[in-house]
Amino acid sequence: MAERTPERLVRLLGMVAFLDRNPGVQVEQLAAHFGVTPEQVLRDVDTLWMSGTPGYWPDDLIDFDAGSLETGVIRLTQSRGMGHALRLGTREAVALIAALRALQEAVGPALDPQQRDVMASTLEALTAATGEAAAAVDVQLSVDAAPEVLVAVAAAVGEGRRLRLRYVNAADETSVREVDPWQLVTGDEHSYLQAWCHSARGERLFRLDRVLSAEVLGAGLEHPPGPVRPTFQPADAHERVRIELDGTARWVAEQLPVDEIEELPDGGFRVSLRVASSAWLRHLLLRLAPRVRDVEPPEVAEDAAAAARRALAAYEPGASSSVAGGGLPDGRD
Amino acid sequence: MSDSLPPAERLLNLVIALVNTQGRMTKEQIRTSVAGYERAGTAEAFERMFERDKEVLRELGVPVLTVSSAAHGDDQGYRVDPDAYRLPPMELSAAQLGVLALAAEFWQGQTLRTDAARALTKLRVVGSTPSETDAVAGLSPRLHPAGPALAPLLDATHDRQAVTFTYRTASTGEVRERHVEPWRVIASRGGWYLVGHDRDRADARVFRLSRIEGAVRTTGAPGAFTVPDGVDPAHVLDDAQQQEQRTAWLAVAPDRAGALRSRAVAQEAPAAMTAPAGMDLLAVPYVRAGDLAAEVVGYTDAVVVLDPPELRESVVRRLRAAVEMGERLSGGDRG
């Protein structure tokens, strides 16, 4: 996909200012610093070389040392007054400061002193440079793990040591597992530990508030971290389920790992998902029941209904036959 | 120069020209001398292009000033204020740049993503290379999407400018126009909130961003209000949430619902509160009855709500709806 104009412009201006401060930078190094390919760096240098003040005679243009460039080192010889870093816009400053504050608050206590210092000094530098901009937004991350769990998990992630977890899963089964911790995924609603699970022989996400206890073990990591993945990765092996919903259940389409959404003319829609856990699917259908128009395969809906029937019995002791009575609720909270 | 210069290169030349100009440049000077405008065509086409470019530059934080000069009649000129252009002096270590990259990653999938990425590009200028991304390795932040209302609300909050939007009240479903002085936007517990002064109710109020319908519009001038001394918007939100906090009494089957158990608090049970034989009695605090009811329903017969009655009814209603769903879908009329 073509790069957007504003992004390229900010980088072009940034490169001139960076090279003005750092005489002689290797192409690869500059590329890594700005997160682009070496080819893109060379294209950017070509662009800069032809840019300058009106007239555009050689003395008007941004200039580089051509000989140096042949050896793969970019040396700026004329910045045309563009040697300063561009200030941050309000929203730009707000975005970074809010994120740093949230991280500091949520995971700060679990970091080692050196990491804590880096985070604090970065926040300080940024706040000093941007002033009051940051008062506009406040992000409160939810790391609702027990404090001792968070400390153990953070230490294990930081030191690359194996963890023993006592964990209760979405199907409400408690198990003890040993995992190779990869990273802490901190969110505004829940936080997770992404890890290699030795019991399951695969990558798993563990919700921190479901970790009942965590113990750092002596062993290092057998399975090092892989690339970052979304919170649920559907696999082809999982059961495929199709659910037709009315329009009020739109959040399902937005929040679930759906494969496919088909919009219907009346505002309803049909989603197709692959499901790894039948307990999870049952829970989903129980929550959505009044909005569900159809489910494929139908046994899935029958399974959820049977579970609901069992649960209702507890509310109407000795009168399980009365379950079918009562009007259809409207499903609103 | 090629036939049509890419927009990024035209904008680059415009910035360089406006930074280096003695005094100011008129539109005519820009049109005839800055590379990239020579092919704009008609005066109207140039006008549109230049207005758009000026907007883009201001959006990026380039301070394009409009300069009127009595000596030149009405003809306006432009320049970039070099002092306002500059980032205040700062240096960032490799590790600090790594922390900032992590902070930018925070906004993945959000409207603020581009702002955060742009800020990072600007800050790389004053950072050491190569950046150390492992300074706080093992952290990966995720947020719920805030939706389109976030960006305009942030701008208005910063500019202290009143806003108007259409809002759907959760309890009544009422949809009404609201006039608000925005104090702060807060992300908390999976939701995004605006805390501000509701002009119609003449009091502090909390609004959920997801219940704002349509566009957020600013009204009146910037700097129109201040957050009153002694008011902490975070506390306003806390109070609103606290007011709603209640305790649910649940009967839980042995060894089940570990997640609920971990949130249970020690609290003396009212005399009449007893769990059925073989089940444990738990007190669990909650804010949104709908959320807890949905969670309880998921445990089916392993968790029974004893109190309060509204929560109990909410659970029963959901369970009945699920039974009804089963009957509805297993009938003979499936297509």
Mean pLDDT of chain B: 86
The total count of strands of chain A amounts to 14
As a percent range, the share of helical residues of chain B equals 25-40%
Q: Which strand order spans the largest sheet of chain B, edge to edge or round the barrel?
A: 8-7-6-5-9
Strand coverage percent of chain B? 15-25%
Number of helices of chain B: 11
In terms of DSSP E residues, the strand content of chain A is 15-25%
Radius of gyration of chain A: 28 Å
Number of domains of chain B: 4
| Global morphology of chain A | extended
CATH topology of the largest domain in chain A: Alpha-Beta Plaits
- Going by CATH, the architecture of the largest domain in chain B would be Roll
Succession of helices and strands of chain B: HEHHEEHHHEHEEEEEHEHEHEH
Q: What is the H/E order of chain A? A: HEHHEHEEHHEHEEEEEEHEEHEH
| Alpha-beta classification of chain A | alpha+beta
Taking the sheet with the most strands of chain A, its summary is: 5 strands, antiparallel
Radius of gyration of chain B: 29 Å
Instruction: Name the pair of protein chains with the most residues at their interface, and give those residue counts.
Output: A-B, 128 and 123 residues
Describe this structure in words.
- With 333 residues, chain A is α+β, with helices and mostly antiparallel strands.
- Chain A has four domains: 74 residues, Orthogonal Bundle (Arc Repressor Mutant, subunit A), CATH 1.10.10; 47 residues; 72 residues, Roll (SH3 type barrels), CATH 2.30.30; 83 residues, Alpha-Beta Plaits, CATH 3.30.70.
- Chain A is built from ten helices and 14 strands.
- Chain A has a five-stranded antiparallel β-sheet with strand order 9-8-7-6-10.
- In chain A, helix 2 packs across helix 3, helix 5 packs antiparallel against helix 6 and helix 9 crosses helix 10.
- The longest helix of chain A is centred in the N-terminal third of the chain and has 18 residues.
- The C terminus of chain A is likely disordered.
- With 335 residues, chain B is an alpha+beta fold.
- Chain B folds into four domains: 79 residues, Arc Repressor Mutant, subunit A, CATH 1.10.10; 53 residues; 94 residues, Roll (SH3 type barrels), CATH 2.30.30; 84 residues, no CATH class.
- In chain B, strands 8-7-6-5-9 form a five-stranded antiparallel β-sheet.
- In chain B, helix 5 runs antiparallel to helix 6 and helix 10 crosses helix 11.
- Chain B is elongated, with a radius of gyration of 29 Å.
- The termini of chain B are far apart.
- The mean pLDDT of chain B is 86.
- Strand 7 of chain A pairs parallel with strand 4 of chain B.
